[in-house]
């Protein structure tokens, strides 16, 4: 009953109304927090996780060795890797170390490589990727890392699947 | 005679143009003030800082499809927005917006007509606006429109009383119904000093009469879609808004005239003083709107009948007593 009485007291109501007016007046003179988005951007944090990108060596070769760890760990199954071997071509002479590599004997004829793996295709479906960073964390070669890109737009779902070329450029 | 005709026509054109323009730009001001109160920026894209936004909105509204519901009463449906706008545009005819000026030896009062019952004229016209709302709500043949119209009608009638009674104190002190006379009798002291309660009651009651937040029960978005203008589109919709924002200007001008000394003021030209005062009162209205939430219907009626009406009656009695005691 007492609370009801207090609610209805005219002085209290007036006081609360004035407090409301004061609140809006103070916010009126504060600086707006809006960013004019396309022209003005928020500063990204140092450890911001965008979508994953592929890293390359100084000689433009991929660092990825197709170990499949990222594909395995990916919780949303966004990464798809097709395994391939590095082909040295017909005329390549085998080095001493390659000659002693027993695993080469298992390979088919006319394939000249030492069993070094590389990804033939490496696809990340950006529509599935949740930018969790597990792939970066598990990668033994530091071949995949999180970029700071997060704005994408596609007209079809297929455009959302990025291959090696696009992933390098991210 | 011809000189009088020309000056009057020019005055009408200027007042008409300024009123429509300010009604359009009030939408921008309202959005900017709302944005600042909510720590936002408001419209920024159309022109420098969005200053062309009202024009863009106007063009958009002109080209929108004009829909009339199949079961609506066509004549009344078209008539209603016009009834809202006409009284608003007419009211400004009696409001003095500047000191009389001299042109070619003639004294030209900066007021379209000096009616000797100016306040009555203003009050009569301001209560006409309700017909547009009620007719529009009924003619739309929609339950939301009808509900909004009924609410608005009940609300406007209950606030009209305290609105009129709050002015009576001013009339008693000025001893005149003409707005020009009321302004000139405030040359030494504004009436807000003598009538602070009358001013507050007028401010609240006029907010309620204009159907603005926190008294916008007639168009409560959360409850009845858009109230009486639910079915309106295109320029008819725009007419309702011209009426609404025009009414803010009118009410601010009336408050300025009755309580804040009209165009009286030192140093600056009188028209500028009038504009500054009106602008400040408009800002108060906007400030109210973006501070308070909407009242419940019974709260609204309680405030009107149980608080504002007795207060305004007491205000008249106290004013009368003091005037007799001082022997005026």
Enumerate the strands of the largest sheet of chain B in spatial order, edge to edge or round the barrel: 1-2
Strand content of chain A: 5-15%
Structural class by secondary-structure content of chain B: mainly alpha
Read across the widest sheet of chain A, the strand sequence of neighbours is 2-3-5
Helical content of chain A stands at 25-40%
For the largest interface in this structure, which chains are involved and how many residues does each contribute?
A-B, 15 and 15 residues
Number of separate strands of chain A: 5
Strand percent estimate of chain B: under 5%
Count of discrete alpha- or pi-helical segments spanning 4 or more residues of chain B: 12
Average pLDDT for all residues of chain A: 81
Q: How is the biggest beta sheet of chain B arranged?
A: 2 strands, antiparallel
Major sheet attributes of chain A: 3 strands, antiparallel
Give the ordered list of helices and strands of chain B.
HHHEEHHHHHHHHH
- What is the chain-wise order of helices and strands of chain A? HHEHEHEHEEH
Question: What's the number of extended β-strand segments of chain B?
Answer: 2
Low-confidence segments of chain A, given as residue ranges, are none
Q: Using the CA coordinates, give the radius of gyration of chain A.
A: 29 Å
Q: What does this protein structure show overall?
A:
The complex is a heterodimer of chains A (170) and B (328). With 170 residues, chain A is of the alpha+beta class. Chain A has a domain at 52-169: Alpha-Beta Plaits. Helices cover 27% and strands 14% of the residues of chain A. Chain A contains 6 helices and 5 strands. Chain A has helices at 2-8, 10-28, 69-73, 96-99, 134-138, 164-169; strands at residues 52-54, 79-85, 117-125, 144-146, 161-162. In chain A, the strands form 2 sheets. Chain A has a 3-stranded antiparallel beta sheet. Chain B is mostly helical and 328 residues long. Chain B has one domain (2-326). In chain B, 68% of the residues lie in helices and 3% in strands. Chain B contains 12 helices and 2 strands. In chain B, strands 1-2 form a two-stranded antiparallel ribbon. In chain B, a hairpin with a 2-residue loop joins strand 1 and strand 2. At the A-B interface, helix 2 of A face helix 1 of B.
